[in-house]
Amino acid sequence: MKRFLLLLLATAAPAAENRDSIFQSSIEAMFPKLVEIRRDIHSHPELPNEEVRTSKLVADRLKELGFTDIKTGVAKHGVVAMLKGGQDGPCVAVRADMDALPVKELRSTPYRSQNPGVMHACGHDVHTTCALGVAELLSRHRELVKGSVKFLFQPAEEAMPATFKGDWGAKLMVAEGVMENPKPAAIFGLHTTAQVMPAGTTDDSVHYLKAGQVGYTPGIDNANSDRFHIVIKGKMAHGSAPHKGVDAIAVASEAVMALQMIKSRQTNTRQPLVISIGLIKGGDRENIIAERVEMGGTVRTYDAKFRDGIIEQMHRILKGITEAHGAGYEMEYRKTYPSIQNDLKLIASTLPAFRRVCGEKNVIELIPGMGGEDFSYFAQVVPGFYFRLGVANEEKGFIHGGHTPMYDCDEAAIKTGVAVMAAAVCDFLDSAAK
Ligand SMILES: [Zn+2]
Ligand SMILES: [Zn+2]
Asked: Rounded to the nearest whole angstrom, what is the distance from the C-alpha of residue 178 to the centroid of ligand 2?
C-alpha cells in the first residue's frame, strides 16, 4: 500500500508539472488578447451596480470561447458561467469582481479611464481579465480538467453607503443561489496587491508584492468591514446668540474626538480595531448655529463579538455627549462585510501549485490587513481561499496602493494570475478525483 502511495505521488507530481508547462505556453499565446481585454475594461470603468458594459463584455467573450451555460443579470449585473471538464468530477468556483471606484485617475496611460471621476483603482479590471483568461485556458484544455468550474463574475464588491437599502454584490449572489446547483466544493478568488506586510515584518516600511509573486495569509485575511452614518440633532439659533440654540457642530466635534477614545482607552489593546470618520457635513451659513450634522465612517475588526461591543460603546458615547448638551442623535450602523477566513486545509493543498508556478521564494506569507472584501460571503458557504496577486514593479512605477488615483498594475501579473488560478483549480479537482 505504502509503495502504491509513493508511486501515486511520484506520478502525480510530473503530471501536474506537465500540465503547468502546457498551460504556460497557451498563456503566452493568449497574453496579447488578455492585455487588450484588460485595457478595454480599465478604460471603461463602471461603479458598483452599474457594470452594464463590463458584464456584456464578459458574457460576449465567454460566448466567443464556446461557453453555452451562461447566466447574466445575476445580482443585477453579475455573470455566472459553467465549464465542463473532460472528466466527471466535483465543481470548483472561481470568483472575479468587476466594479470600479469613484476616483479620478491621475495616470496618463493610453488605457486611462474614459469615464470621468470613475477608475479601476482596486484592480478589478485585472481580476475580471484573469478569470476570463482561466476560462479560455481551461476551455482550450478541457481534457485536463477533472470536473467542472463555475465562474462567478461579481458586480458591486465596493461597499455601498450605510444608508443603502437591500443587499448587493457577493451577498446578493449567494442569496440568488449561485452557490447551489451545482454546489462548488471550494472557491478561489484573487486580488491584485502592490503593497504588503510580509509575515515577520514589524515596521511600517513599504514592501512590494511584485508581478510574478503571490501572497497569502494563513487563516484570517482581512477585517469585518462596517459602515455607520450618524446624525447629530441640535437646535438652530442666530450665530450671535448660541445660548438660544444647541450647536450640532460643537456636539459633533466632541463626539468625533470621544469616538477615537474607544480604540485608545476602552478596548483590549490586543484586538485590532480601526474607527475612521471619513465624512462630516453640517451647517447652513456662517452666522447660524447648525441644527444638524451628518457623519459617516467605517469600523474594522477581526472578531465578531468584539465588534458588537464596539457598536454598544459608540451608542453609549453618542448618547452621553448629546444628552449632556441637550442634543439628540441617530446612528445607522451596518455590518457590511464579514472578515475573510481562509480555509487552512485548502491553503495547504493549494500552496504546492503556487510554488510550482511561481517558484518557492515568490510565494509569500503575509500579515492580514484591515481591509474588507465580500468574498467572505462565498467562503462562509464552502471552503474558500482568497489570495493576493502581486502587481508591483518598481522600475516601471507600479508601486501605488489600491484605492488611490495612481494605482496601476504591471500587466505581466495577468500571466501569473491565470497560471496560478488554473493550477489551483486543476490541482483541487485532481485531488478530489483520487
Ligand atoms: Zn476596493
Ligand atoms: Zn478590490
From this structure: 20
